Every structure is written in C-alpha cells, then in structure tokens.
Amino acid sequence: MAIPLLVAQCAPPPPPGSWAFLATDGTRYTRWCRNVIRYQIDVTVPPAADERGAIIDALAAASAATGIRFEPAGDHRGSVPSSGVDVVVGYRDFPGGTLGEGGGSYTAGFEMVVGRAHVDVGLTPKVRRTALLHEIAHMLGLDHVSDTGQLMYPAIRIPPRQAYASGDREGLRRVGTSMPCSASRSLSSELQTIIRT
C-alpha cells in the first residue's frame, strides 16, 4: 500500500504568518517581476575569496527557492547598483552587533526595482551564511516573521540556520517565478524604499 505511505509523508504546508512581505496592499505585495536579476558585488569592503564564494552560494540558494536566475555584472563600490544592474550584495562594517541589512525600492505597483543586501564583516562562516540568506530574502521582498523556526525571524538562532525553512521557502516561492506577477507598472517615478536589519 504505497499510496497511504506517500500521503503520510507529505509535510503540511507552512501556516500563514511564517512568511511576510516588506509591503502589501490587498493581494499585491513587494516582489521582483522578472526571471533574471543582475547583481554586482559591492567591493567598498573588499571581500576575501571565501566571502565572495559565500555570496554566490547564498544567491544560488535563493535562486533554487524562487526560480529567479542571478546574473553577475561585476564589481561595484556602493549600495546603489550601476545603471542596468538590479542589486548589490556585499559586506559592511556594521556597528553595535548588527549582522546585516537588506531590502530595496519598489514602485507604487509594488514591483521591486532596486535591491541591496549587506552583511557584517568578520562573521563565522555559519553565521555569515545565515545573515546572507536572510538579507537576500529581504532584497527579494520578504520581511521579518515572528515564527522562531524560520530564517526570517529577526534574531539569529543557535545553531545558525544554514537553509531556508518551510515558511521562508513558501514566501520565496510567492516572490519567485512560479507566481504571476501582481505588481503593475506605475507611471509615477517615485519609489518607496524599505531596508531591514
């Protein structure tokens, strides 16, 4: 009787509230409306080879969860990407125990159009990976949640999560390529910006 066994092994969907978006309005929420996001690595604080590799690995994890392909566009200095580039990812020396910050700017139609994700320098590899995954999810449109089992919980858990949990994955799926984009282009040039730590 394979069918009952397969049904029993299916995990229940994560409960609402285990994912959240930076901003919402009815059924619309912050997200990128594209299949490819071009990124630059911020070299204001020059990353070592392992730090650069950690960025690439974290973007690969976000890509697997969203279906969005991240295309490298070289190095850059600063938090605002060059013209024709969508996001910047890198390192900063944050004061006061801040592990990172991420988010971006979106149109009146909730379409994310510019993003950034930075994590603190000098983190251990496991904490650095957790911070990168967290800030990249902010960059993609996700917000903090109160569910301590999710990577988008606003405080780091011990041991540090090394992968997105079920609610994180559901939120990332909703900002990813499998969902039709509910954002509508706005004629207004004004952008709203949300950056989270």
Written description of the protein model:
- Helix 2 (49-66) packs across helix 3.
- By secondary structure, the chain is α/β, with parallel strands linked by helices.
- The protein is globular.
- It has a 6-stranded mixed β-sheet with strand order 4-3-5-7-6-8. Strands 1-2 form a two-stranded antiparallel sheet.
- The protein has a single domain (18-181), classed as Collagenase (Catalytic Domain), CATH 3.40.390.
- It has helices at residues 2-9, 49-66, 125-140, 166-174, and strands at residues 24-25, 28-29, 36-42, 69-76, 87-92, 100-106, 112-120, 192-196.
Short description:
With 197 residues, this protein is α/β, with parallel strands linked by helices. It contains four helices and eight strands.
Which word captures the global form?
globular
Mean pLDDT: 90
Q: What topology, given as strand order, has the largest sheet?
A: 4-3-5-7-6-8
Helix content: 25-40%
Structural class by secondary-structure content: alpha/beta
What fraction strand? 15-25%
Can you count the helices?
A: 4
Radius of gyration: 17 Å
Measured between the Cα atoms of the first and last residue, the distance is 49 Å
CATH architecture: 3-Layer(aba) Sandwich
Main beta-sheet strand count, sense and barrel state: 6 strands, mixed
Number of domains: 1
CATH homologous superfamily identity: Collagenase (Catalytic Domain)
CATH fold group:
Collagenase (Catalytic Domain)
Q: Topology as H/E string?
A: HEEEHEEEEHHE
